[in-house]
Amino acid sequence: MTYVPKGSAADDTYAVAIDPKTAGWAHAGLRVVEIPAGGTHSFATGESEWIVLPLTGGCTVHAEGEIIELLGRESVFSGATDFAYVPRDAHIQIASGVGGRFALAGAKCERRLPARYGPAPEVPVEARGSGSCARQVRNFASADAFDCDRLIAVEVITPGGNWSSYPPHKHDEHRPGVESVLEEIYYFEIEGEHGFGYQRVSPSREGGTDVLAEVRSGDAVLVPDGWHGPSIAQPGHTMYYLNVMAGPGDEREWKICFHPDHTEGYR
């Protein structure tokens, strides 16, 4: 299943629980946990590295003898947040006095890196595109912004009425210096009670991924291959999505190829 409506990937612990096995691939995963005020959540990282990313609220992350305080944020539309990186083969506890929702962006990995704090002021914020294709990209764990073994993760804010993830692009072939193989998860939040958007993924090969989904808060779209984009925000409703990526390449890099009908790239 490539379109994952809200609740369809939930379990007794997580509002969203996407792992490599359920996604039908090898590396990328995403969990969203809701912690009540004064509550805690514990988990074993297993074979994956993870980033604890506040969607709403703040928390304290206990990892490897480290205590990492995250101020968090009021909502994903408030701005970039601080975050915590936690390594594979560790036991983690998240405690939240105020309560909140927290994304766990993960990737199966080989190296065991130390637990670390990612400050919000150090998150590179990029203005990408222009006009009706303008959007904001928060590169908190892009390949060149924060050290991980395999995980790449960014946030995108698309103003109401705009297109993002555009022009359509792909990263499903290994072509050194040109394109890298990356599995990708889009997780959506839409501003406003009745807000929605659209996500397109079109085939890059015969029998490839073909999705046109109306997305709302809490939905996800999986991109194992194919041209992805555009992501379209309903007028009057800002769209947020969290991209979680990981792949098999020796180099942790985000190399993309634009659709041949849109070789001009970002405008």
How would you summarize this macromolecular structure in one to three sentences?
The chain is mainly beta. It contains one helix and 22 strands.
Structural account:
With 267 residues, this protein is an all-beta fold. It has one domain: Jelly Rolls, CATH 2.60.120.10. The chain has one helix and 22 strands. Strands 2, 3, 4, 5, 6, 7, 8, 9 and 10 form a nine-stranded antiparallel beta sheet that branches. A seven-stranded antiparallel beta sheet has the order 1-19-16-21-13-12-11, with no helix packed on it. The chain has a four-stranded antiparallel beta sheet with strand order 14-20-17-18, with no helix packed on it. The longest helix is centred in the first third of the chain and has 4 residues, at 20-23. The radius of gyration is 17 Å and the shape is globular.
Tell me the count of domains.
1
Q: Bin the helical content.
A: under 10%
- CATH class bucket: Mainly Beta
Structural class of the secondary elements? Answer: mainly beta
Largest sheet: 9 strands, antiparallel
Count helical runs. Answer: 1
Low-confidence stretches: none
Q: Tell me, rounded to a whole number, the average pLDDT.
A: 96
CATH topology term: Jelly Rolls
- How far is it from the N-terminal to the C-terminal residue, by CA? 32 Å
Q: Based on CA inertia axes, which overall geometry fits? A: globular
How would you spell out the order of helices and strands?
A: EEHEEEEEEEEEEEEEEEEEEEE
Please tally the β strands and state the result. 22
What's the alpha carbon Rg, rounded to whole Å? Answer: 17 Å
Q: At CATH's second level, what is the architecture?
A: Sandwich
CATH homology group: Jelly Rolls
Strand content: over 45%
